[in-house]
What does this fold into?
Amino acid sequence: MKIADSIKRARKQGMSDEQILEAIIKQNPSKGSSFNMAKERGMTATEILDKTIEQNQQEEKNVKQAPPIGEELPATPPKPTEESKLWVRIFITLGLVFFVSLSFTLVYRTLFVSQLEPIDPQIIRADVNIPVANYPIVKLYPERDAVKRLAVTMDEEYKMYLREIMREERGGEIVRLIVEDQKDERNVRISNLEDFFSAIDVTPPENFFDAIGLNNKNFTLLVYTVETPNGIGFITEFNEEEREKVEWNILKPWEETIEEDFSDFLSFLGAEIPVTRESLEAIDYYSGDRNFADEIRYREGTGNMGVYYSILRDRLVFATTMETIKTIIDRHYEL
It folds into this structure.
């Protein structure tokens, strides 16, 4: 039992401090001399015991703070391992290699590579060919009509655009189509009537283009949107002196096969037309307040569509519906 605990227990049992001190001296003769010296200095038994308890508690505190027996506190930091030494050598070596390479590159460029001269920026000019379309042969009103410019590189694109526009709902306006033929990048031009017939798979009579004078290329392609599907029409001009030739030598003989020649195109539009050898039907159409009529010759198919054409003074009009050809004739006389 610890001496401090013994003193406290003895005091609880009612022993006086003088009795406790004498008992401690008997049990620990080695401490007797120190206790006697304390008495000679004038300390009482109580002061000696309290001092003893205080010293005993301080010794216990020191024992708790001391390291366990056999464990030594490190006096110096741990030495680096062999692996860490290896990585240090590697990093040092890489740094030296990089420094030497950079120095060699700078010396080489300075001594052997000629100085590059600054390059002045140059502006490259390229001519862009934007073909100009001819003036329309019918009256167009900007506030209620529209113009679409299309670019095609093959005939199938021509048909695709026609199909899309025929399905659009535009409330009765006329849409002029200006088609750029870009099949030859070096010769971009506005498509003419011959291009249009080729795209829609229509083969006219052999001397058709010679008679209407295709060289002037004045051809206006229109879509009339009042009906569903929309109607397609075109108007082209020829020399007035060639009217009889156009009417009697070209179009009248063509009527024998015109339904068959337009059948693929009408089938593409979703209509069918009977093929006969009979002459086309005809009606007289008075445009506006004019006192003379223009003859419209036609063969009607399904879906209110068919082949309709009319010869004006020096104009030839074709359309796929009756309303379309009448509208084109009206607009022609409004010029």
Observations:
- Strands lie at 146-152, 174-181, 189-190, 219-224, 231-237, 281-285, 294-300, 306-311, 315-319.
- The first helix runs from residue 3 to 12.
- The chain has eleven helices and nine strands.
